[in-house]
UniProtKB/TrEMBL annotation:
Protein's name in the database: Uncharacterized protein
Family: Belongs to the transposase mutator family.
MF terms in GO: DNA binding; transposase activity
Gene Ontology process terms (BP): DNA transposition
Job of this protein: Required for the transposition of the insertion element.
Pfam family, one: Transposase_mut
Organism: Rubrivivax gelatinosus
Taxonomic lineage: Bacteria, Pseudomonadati, Pseudomonadota, Betaproteobacteria, Burkholderiales
Alphabetical keyword list: DNA recombination, DNA-binding, Transposition
Transmembrane segments annotated in the record for this chain: none
Length: 199
């Protein structure tokens, strides 16, 4: 779960966080090591969406490739960095099998299995969940392409973290450009009233 000692490329992923997030989507990717088939470590990251529509890369962690994620430890890092509450945590497999009464887990209001349909929700919440899914899938696709260019795996945790940050920054720029284009197409009166930016 920890980052390599002295890994300077991961520092932005340890920045202070905002207090509350509407949704946090967790995803994992492939293998880290010299041999993709034998590697025992995978990269997991989380992309979050605020109630105002902004997105953020919460963090990234090295986790056992075929084992259970230590959710209390992972979430404890987010709380330590300033996060206080996640309304919806979207993860592969839904709620973690560990005791959900754990103090670290109870700060997550709802757990949702990424492979199941979104439940009936208020329109704005459902719209933001859909937008967060789009952003998460775009980042995941970029990371898949990056891994394939290296034979289906990352050589080291350092290269995996660096690649994630690089692709996130590119995605942020695209999201900003898309939001600017949408704003430009709106009538003048509604552009200033927009409360949910593309990022």
């Amino acid at each position: 779960m920890s980052r390599p000692e002295g890994d300077r490329s991961t520092e932005p992923l340890a920045d202070a966080l905002c207090c509350r997030y509407l949704v946090a989507r967790f995803a994992s990717l492939g293998a880290i090591g010299d041999d993709a088939a034998a590697a025992s470590t995978a990269l997991t990251w989380a992309v979050a969406t605020h109630a105002d529509g902004h997105h953020a890369l919460l963090g990234a962690w090295c986790v056992p490739r075929d084992g259970d994620i230590a959710w209390p430890e992972l979430l404890a890092e987010l709380w330590t960095r300033g996060a206080e509450r996640i309304e919806w945590a979207v993860v592969p497999g839904g709620a973690p099998p560990a005791a959900t009464a754990d103090a670290e887990l109870t700060k997550v209001v709802h757990w949702h299995d990424a492979s199941t349909p979104v439940p009936v929700l208020p329109p704005r919440t459902k719209r933001l969940l859909a937008k967060s899914d789009d952003v998460a899938q775009r980042l995941h696709a970029a990371m898949l392409r990056a891994a394939r260019r290296q034979g289906g795996r990352f050589d080291s945790a350092e290269s995996a973290f660096a690649s994630l940050q690089r692709h996130w920054r590119r995605l942020e720029r695209r999201l900003d450009a898309e939001h600017a284009a949408r704003t430009a197409r709106r009538p003048a009166g509604t552009a200033a009233a927009s409360a949910a930016p593309g990022r």
